[in-house]
Every structure is written in C-alpha cells, then in structure tokens.
# Entry
Amino acid sequence: MVIMFVVLAAAAIALGYALFNYKSVKGMDEGNARMSEIAAAIREGANAFINYEYRIIFIVAGIVAVVFGIIFSFEEGTFRWEPSAAFVLGTSMSALAGYIGMKIATYANVRVSNTARLTLKIGSTLKVALKGGSVMGLCVGGFALLGLFLVYVIFGFGMGYLNMDSIETTGSIFTQCLSCYALGCSIVAMFNRVGGGIYTKAADMGADLVGKTEAHIPEDDPRNPATIADNVGDNVGDVAGLGSDLLESYVGAITSSIILAVSLFMHASIESGLIAKDMLEKMVFYPLVFASIGLVASVIGIAYVLFKKESDNPHRDLNMSTWAAAAITVIGGFIITGSFFKGADFTGTGFSLGYLSPWIAASIGVVSGVVIGAIAEYYTSDAYAPTRKIAHASVDGPALTVTEGLATGMISCMAPLIVLGIAIYASYAVSGMYGLAMAAIGMLSFVSATVSVDTYGPISDNAGGIAEMSRLDPEVRHITDKLDSVGNTTAAIGKGFAIGSASLAALSLMVSYLYAFSPSGSLDLNFTDPLILAGALVGAALPYLFSGMLIEAVSKAAQKMVEEVRRQFREMPGILTGQDKPDYKTCITISSQGAIKEMKTPALISILFPLVSGFLFGPYFVGGLLIGATVSAIMLAIFTGNAGGAWDNAKKYIEAGGVEGHFKGSAAHDAAVVGDTVGDPLKDTVGPSLDILIKIMSTVSLIAAVLFSQYNLLGWISTLIH
Amino acid sequence: MVIMFVVLAAAAIALGYALFNYKSVKGMDEGNARMSEIAAAIREGANAFINYEYRIIFIVAGIVAVVFGIIFSFEEGTFRWEPSAAFVLGTSMSALAGYIGMKIATYANVRVSNTARLTLKIGSTLKVALKGGSVMGLCVGGFALLGLFLVYVIFGFGMGYLNMDSIETTGSIFTQCLSCYALGCSIVAMFNRVGGGIYTKAADMGADLVGKTEAHIPEDDPRNPATIADNVGDNVGDVAGLGSDLLESYVGAITSSIILAVSLFMHASIESGLIAKDMLEKMVFYPLVFASIGLVASVIGIAYVLFKKESDNPHRDLNMSTWAAAAITVIGGFIITGSFFKGADFTGTGFSLGYLSPWIAASIGVVSGVVIGAIAEYYTSDAYAPTRKIAHASVDGPALTVTEGLATGMISCMAPLIVLGIAIYASYAVSGMYGLAMAAIGMLSFVSATVSVDTYGPISDNAGGIAEMSRLDPEVRHITDKLDSVGNTTAAIGKGFAIGSASLAALSLMVSYLYAFSPSGSLDLNFTDPLILAGALVGAALPYLFSGMLIEAVSKAAQKMVEEVRRQFREMPGILTGQDKPDYKTCITISSQGAIKEMKTPALISILFPLVSGFLFGPYFVGGLLIGATVSAIMLAIFTGNAGGAWDNAKKYIEAGGVEGHFKGSAAHDAAVVGDTVGDPLKDTVGPSLDILIKIMSTVSLIAAVLFSQYNLLGWISTLIH
# Structure
C-alpha cells in the first residue's frame, strides 16, 4: 500500500528532527569544570544502570522469544519464527528510544544550567530544556511508527500475511506479530518504569528522609551523599522510564485498533461479506494514518515553540506546543479522513455518522484526554482548592497531611471516570468497538509533543541539582526551579493521558481477546457467570498486590539508602561541615542494586499471572481477570497519581509562602515533606506502572487466548466428570 | 408454615438471653463516686448524640416511606402501603438493636473497670465485658429475625403475598417488602456507621493529635478536654455503629437469598414447572431456618464462655465462643437440612450434590469467612511479619511508617479475594446462584457471637478510659489494656466477615436485580456492552468518592477538635498542671455537630446515585454500576481495614517493646502514632461504611429496577431518534 510511505515519511521526519536537536544540544558548552564533573558523574551513573538493566531485558526478551517460537511452532505444526521476530523488534524500538532519550537528557541537564548561568533568562533556558526533552518525545513517536512500518512491510506484505484474499487463514498470524511487537515494547517499558521508578524513588526518599528531615540541609545539597543518585534517578526513571512507558501506550493503542480491525475482517470473511472488503482494508490502515498525522503535528508543535521568539511564560509556551499539536492533529485528521474514507461502503461497520465516524471517535479521544488532563491539573496544582487544603492541613501535623492527601486522591477518581465513561459510550455509538480503539489513538496521537514536555521536567530538575551542587548563583537555581515547578503540572496532565488511553486500549484488546477464542464471534463476557465473576474479583486484587509490592520495593531500597547516608554522616562528620567529600558511589550502587533486585518479581507477575490462570481456569476466567484488573488499575492509577502530585505541590505551596506564618523549615513544612515522601513512590513508581501492567496482561492473554481454550485444567476436569 | 415458629423461638431465645444479661450487668456496682461521675458523663454524651441522630433518621425514614408509598401506588395503580410499612419495620428493628446495645455498653464500661478494680482478675473482668457485649450481639440476631418473622407473617401470610398458587402475581410485592425491610436496616446502619464513625474518629484524632503528639500526655488522661468525647465515640461508633452495620449485613444476606428464591419461583411458575413447587417453597423458607440455627448456636457459644470456669487467656475464650457457635451451626445445619430437604425433587435447581447442596454452600460460606478472618489476623496482628515490618520502618520516620502500611494494606487484598473467588465458584457449582446467597448466610449465621466479641472490645476500651480518668491502680488499666488489645484482633477478624458476606450478598442481590427487569429470565450483563462498561467504570469510582468524602469529613471535624483542645490548653494553662478542669462539653458538642453535619451527603449519595443514573441511563447502566462499585468497594474495604489495623498494632508493638531501643515517647513511637492516626478513619469510618454502601445501592436499585426499565432518558432519546 502506498499509504505506508506516509507512515515511513512521518517517522523519518520525527527521527530526523530528533537527530538535529540531539546534535544541537550536544554541541553546546557545558560550563565550568565543577559543572562538567558533576554532570559526568550523573551520566556515568545513569549509563551504568541502563546498561546493566538492558542486559537483563536482553536475557528476558531472549527467553520469551525462544518460548514464543516453540509454542507457536508447536501449536501450528510448522516452524513459526515471525511472532518472535516481531517481539524482538518491539523490544529494540522501545529500548532504542529510551536509550537515546536518556543519553541526551544527561547532556542537556548541565547545558540547561549553563544557559541559565550565562543568559539569566528563563526563555532561553526553557528552549534548551525543551530541545533536550524533544529528543525523547520524537524518538517515542518515530521509533514506534518505524517499527510498525517494518511489521507491516516484513510480515504483512513480505510474508503475505496481510493478503486480503487469504486473510481468514493468515490474519491471525499477522495479529500475533502485532501483539508480539506490542508486547516487546511493553516488556521494556515495564522494566524501565519499574526499575527506573524504584531507582529514582529510593534515591529521592533516601536523600530526603535524612537530608531534609534529619540534617535539615536543602535539596540537592552536595553534602548529601545520596544527591548524585537522586539526580541519576531522574534520568533513568523520569526520562527513560517515562519514554518507554508512553511508547508502549502509543503502540498499544495503535496495535489494538489494527488487531480489532483485522479480527473484524476475519470474521466478516468467515461470515462472507458482512462488511465490504475495501472498507475493512481501509480500517486496517487508518490507525497508522491517524498516528502519522499526529506525529507530524507534534513535530510542528515542538518546532513552533523552539523557533518562536523567547517569552518569559514557560507554562504558556509548553501548553502551546501541546495544544498546537492536538489542534493540528484534529484538523489534519479531518482533511485526510475525508479523502481516505470517502465513498466507502459502511454497511455493518457500526459507523453511524458516515465516513467521518472514525475521525469523530478519535477526536472524542483527543478532547477527553485534554479534559482528563485538566482535571488532573485541578486536583494537583496549588492554584486550586484541593492542594491548598492539604497545605493548610499540614499545620496540624503529618497525619492530617497524609489523610487529606488520601482523601483528595480518592475524590479525584470520579470526574475522569465520568469523562472516560462518556468517551467509551460516545465513541462506540459513533464507530462501534473500533471507535473505542480510535479514541485511544486520538488521546495519544500527539504523544511526541506531550512526552517532549514531560521530559523537559526532569531535565530542568537535574539542571537545578547541578546548579546547587556547583554552588552557582542562586538566581540560576531560581530559574530552574521555576521550570521544574511547571514541569510538575505538565507531568500530572501527562499521567492523565497515559491512564486514560491505557484503559481504552486495554478494553479494545479485550474485545480482540474475546474474538480470538470464540470463533462464533459472540463477544460474551457475562458477569453472572461465576467463573468470570471470580476472575474479576481476583483480577481486581492484582493491581493492589502489584502496587503493594512496588511500594515495598521502593521502601526497602530507601531504607538501605537512609542507613548508608546516616552512616556516612556519622563516620565522616566532616561531610556536614563541608570538609569531607561524601561517598556518592556507594549510594548509586545501593539504588542500582535495589532496583535490579526488586523489579523482577512485579514484572514477572504481570506476565505469569494471566498465563497461569489461563491454563488453570480457561479463557473466560482470564476475561474476568482482565476486566477486573483494568477497572481496579485505573482507579489506583488515578488515586495514586493525583494524591502524589497534590502532596508534592502542597509542599511547594508552603515553601512559596502560601500558608501564612509557615515557611520552609517550619513544623508545617516538615509535615508537608512527609506527605511528599509518601506520595513519591505512589505517583512515580506505582501509578505509571499500573497502565503497563494492564496492557501487558491483555497482550499476553491475547497471544495465548487460543491455547487457554484448548488446554486448561478446569475444562479437563469437567470433561473428566461428565 | 409451622417452620415460622422455629424462627420465632430462636428470636425469643436470643432476645430473652439478651434481656437477662442486660439486667445482670445493670445490677452490678459502679464503683466509687469519681467513676460514676465519669461514666454518667459518657452516658449522657452518648445518649444525647444518638437521640439527636435518631431524630434525623426518623425524618429521613419518614420521607422515604412516603415516597415509596406514592411511587408504588402510582406504579401499580392501587394504594400500596406494604413496602413502606416493611421499610419502617426495618428501621425500627435496626434502631432498637443499636439503641439497646449502646445503652448497656454505657453501663457495662464502668462495671468492667470496677470488676477489674475489685478482683484484679482478667477472667472475671472478661466475663463482665463479654456479658455487656453479648446484649448487642444477641439483639442483632434477635431483632433481625423477629423483623423477618413479622414480614413473613404480616405480608407473606396475612396479606397472602406468599401464596404459593398466585406467586407469579404477588411474589414481586413480597420481594418488595423484603427489599424495603432490608433497606430500612441499611439506612439506619448507614447513619449509625457514618455518623458514629465520624464522631468517634474526630474525637479520637483530635485527642491524639494534641494530647499525645503535642502535649505528650497519655491516652485517656483526664487533663485532655477531648477525652470524654473520645470515650463517647467508642459507644456511638464502635458499639451502635457496628451493631446496626452487622444487623444490616445479616438481614441483607438472608433477604437476598429469599428474594432470589422467590424470583426463581416466579420464573419457574411463568415457565410452568421448571422447578418443582414444593422444592421452591422449601427454598424460600430455608434461609430463615439456617439463620435460626446459627442464632441458637450463637446463644450456646456465648453462654458457654459466660458460664464456664474463669481462665486467664481472654483470646482463647473469645475465640472459643465464636468457633463453638460456628461448629454448632455447621453440625446443626447438617442435621436439620437433611430432614428439611430430604426426598424433595431437585430438577432444575442446580443442586448438584443432592439435598445437602445448600448446606454445603452455607458451610463453604462459614469456612471461607473463618479463613478470610484468619488472613485479616495475619496482616494486622503484631504476632506476624507484616505489622512488625511497619513497626520497624517507624524507626526511619513517619513517611516510611505510612508507606509500609499502605503497601501492607494493598498486598493484603489478594489472599481474601482468592478465597472469595473460590467460595463463589464452589458454592455456585454446588447450588447455583442460590448457593452464592447461602454462602453469604453461612458467613454471617453466627453473627451474634461475632458481634458480642466485637462489642466487648470498645467496652473494655471505655473501661480503661474510666480507670485512667478515675486514677485507679495502674494494675486495673493493665487488665483492661490486655482485654482491649485482644479486641483489636477480633475486630479485624469481624471486618473480614463483614466485607466477605457483603460482597456475596451484593452479588446475589445483583441477580435478583437482573431478574426484576428482564422477564425473559436471561441474566445478561455483558461487559462488551459499552453502556454496561461505562457504568462499571463510574461505579468503580463511586466507593473512592464516598471514601474520600468520609475521610474529609473526619479530618474536618478533627481539625476543629484540635483547635478547641489547643484553645483550652492555651487559655487555661491550669489544665495541664491539673488545677483547672477542662471543658469536656464543648468537645462533645464539636464531635456531635461535625458528625451530624457531615454524614448527610455520603448517606444521600449512596441512595441517590443509583436512582439518578437509573432514570438517566437505564437498568443496564445501573447493572454495570453495581458490579463496578461492588468490586471496587471490596478492595478498598480490605485495603483500608487491614492497613488501619496494622498501623494500630504496629504502634502497640513498639509500646510493648517489640522494636529494640525504641519505646513509648521515642521518635519511632511518634512516627507510629502518625500511622495509627492516618489509619483511624480508614479502618473505623471508611472500611465498614463501604459494605453498607454497596448493599444500599443494590437494594435501592432492586426496588427501582422495573421503573428504570420503563422510564429512562437514554431509552426515551433512542426511541425519539429511531
């Protein structure tokens, strides 16, 4: 199909622009020797961790690929290497994006401090930070589409599995390749998010618990032995982790809609012509087209802010790039969808509003994503009542800070879920189940813009750390702090997009899952069936178990960090007076080892739990499990994300003098720091990992669906009895 | 039916024994004048609150009864007073049980302290406390069954709605009466639990936040102005609240199974003879029979411990009464079920193991209730690793205490949900959907024994408070402390029963709900329907919203209390030196007003949310809403209950010297107190209210189901379009 060149072109534009920005950032000056030295230490720590982590991913991915090869070959009675290859392709794309994005972040941080130092202007500093962040953002969109292009070209056209005339026999191989590609991205995301999340929060909590609370030294003070580890953590967790997380969401949304279209296609073929053939073909390619439009729109949005005149309102500039990308996506989508679908035969598709139906569904996704983001901003920004209430409660001690934050997080679940409910119903009403998948794509179509903005946050945070550790002019720190605080709000908005799209993608994967083992095409998942009900209950408990384990992992690693920092302060009293240099390396090692050790179990759970229960209790139990887990994970993700964000900003609100008579260092501030510390693992480790969890579970189940229905213990027992 | 005399006899035995214990406790001596004075103050505060609260319940119940009368009369075109009357009966039974149980608790508390003072023996003190608690326990079972007896006699036989020959026309009136009876109990429970929960936790947190943390005076110190309010709170929240909560669960479980049986009955009649008529008749009466067995078994279990030789192991004695009641229920059930169902025709019932099938299902309920209780004990008792881990984490500050507690609570969800999943599948496999309802009854059949043991806890807690305030010998306080700490564990076990049975009851109400508006009898609740899916998502957010609002309510009231206590300490410095007497009354007023003011919104939400969404989006949306809310509420209830219990006991563990080098008053203990304070509203306000929430929602929806399907906006719009 000629349309694939559009996809390739979009990917090439994005990756080309990323390369340009990479070179442009790296070509800048690092500043004085002290700054270079600190930046090198952070870079070294980040590289060491990601190299070690990638080695583990490499091993796990290798095992999974071999297992897939054996299973699929065994199942189909012929050597079937394609799904494994697609899986490896997925891991490579995701790993590459994370690696490159993180690499440039460790160059950009010090250049941001240096720009602030030289210009003392917020506008020029913002541009460097955003340019650094844009590499991650553009790599996410570019590599994701490049990989999908390769899947289509190699397996779809090259191997002929997307041949429209034999789709009923080869379609399932093609969807398997797509699922495995998505799973490859998911697994890297899981390791990067969980590993990076544990790393960064162990370091952060460790640094705060002793540094801020006990020794009362400011954040990023060079006397704190955990401070370099904390800055390394920003890069491995908030940059690489976030990037591969959203790449995974993006790929998940796109593949789930393609898989759904192919499934519809196969069923239509089986039932001979329920939907017109050329219409189905269009539906298989449309998700890629829409994603390409979004990617080009993101390039324009980012470029606009980077090339336009400097301003001193970073919040507006950043929003501008996102909203511009969103608007261009919607408008571009309107134009292209029109010519793409015009004149097609819509019989049986459920497209109730003609050829614009899928565009409307995608636009519903765009709008609801924006609304969910705005709701997240309301609950987490200190410009509004909820966060201020937490700040004021801190006056009465840490217990009330925590209590108020929990309450805010819980209450914040309702509004986004109503939006999501409306989006589901409306997009379905417009375009059937395909509309649901398109809404997910819409929400994520301009992901490159949002990730660029999200990545800019940790880069600015790091820049502030370097400024503090190099004892630069306080004005420099003031500039980076301002950039960082804007980053907090954009991060909360980004999380809204991530969880919203993840739930839509998981739900449409669900439908493909049901198609996979029910050849009659009846999509029955009846909750009065006790097996499905039991599955839903156990499934709902799974995100809780997973979250609890992640929190324990962080807190275990943080406790070790606390002990180490205390030990150094005790054994080398010269550190606090500034005479001795703290031992940064040991702290980095503690975070690394803790992360590597603790990330394995939760990652394995997400893969093995649906597999084991499928082979024990069959596909319907797993169907319940997936729904239960999805519903419960959405709630927990919103609850933890918003509570954590609100605590963080409540603390910042007190620091900014928002609560009269209580400033930095007061008892109220100490209480707010407790809230912030409690929120750290919730918002940066648990919340973001939950949307990966539900998508890995759905994808794994989808891949194994046929096997579940053929081989399961419960079915075997019941044939034995009867 | 002659079987109704068995029910009446069981109720009479329980209420008679309650009366005996009431008189026996009240006849004991109160001790010295100071003790009498304090006890009178507590009693006065409790009475004032419950009188005021009951006035509000009276008004709300009156309005609901009138509305019901109008709606039902309008719907059926004839004056229909019966459901309203049944509703009022339900409120009366629940209100009476709560009132009597609380009344005797405010007499028993001081008599427990006096017994400890006079005998200095833990065995005799335990007996007084348990005797006091048994009044609440026996009233729960007794009044619940008495009310059900009246519903059967008045509406079933008297009005003839349970006439087996005209069941297809009158059956729905009878189930409406049953639902309304259950709703009456639920509404009182909601007010008592929520109002009492806010009252007690506002006082408790207020007392702790200033008293323990700032002024460093011990718990229950008479110098703390909030201390009387704190003790009043134990009575209105932990006694009256708990009693009407479990009465509601008990009634909910019984009525849901009867309603299900009648629904089956009506469908079988419509489809002419799917299940044999005499079999269906038995199924309608069996739940009452099994409940009666459990009630008599509970009387025996309690009496055994009260009459047996004194021991010095209160934990074993209390467990003995519960386990004895459980064992007698199972054995008695076996004997009576045999003769009850023997020879009946099981065609179409789904009873796969013959006439013992429903007994097996109920026994599955008993066993899984016990296992869920044991799991709760594991996660919350300081004898095991999870709670100890929290205690040790407290050494590194309050943030890690809170973090570890959250992790423990989250992890603790999986095991009970697996048990619940197995119980659902197994009881269904044995006896169909009826089995699910019977499992819920099994779990709660010996509720009178568990409530007696649960109520003993707050009575002992109060006794300790009175001992402290009357400056009795520390040995007295030592005895009551020991009793209180055992009470903590039994409370956690009781919560396991409550949420387990609530979820089973809600699920079987769900089935009756589906029956109610789908006359074809197809119980379809398909999750690939976007309307149901949207309902489930919004439903899942509802318990979060509800919980968040409750926490906010508590924290708002607690903040007021903190200000008041601080004011008194500031304006009357003589209080802390013991020269001035603090102003207890104002604190009591603050708790009362806070509770009354804050309980209305959450209570109304639970009634109005399903109603409004039903009239907007129709019965299928509400079906999704109920499932989503149930699944999400179970998780939150277990999470909050276990996290709260674990924090409480982690603090006690440090006080008992479990963490070497850290004792009462140390920084680690202060951190643990923060955890305990955070957990207080979670475990005593939020958790227990959640199971009432899901049952009120299910019951209200069941009552309005037919209306939803006749009148809803979405349906109206769609007929308008087509």
Summary: Chain B touches chain A through 79 residues (CB under 8 Å). The mean pLDDT of chain B is 89. The CA atoms of residues 309 and 486 of chain B lie 19 Å apart.
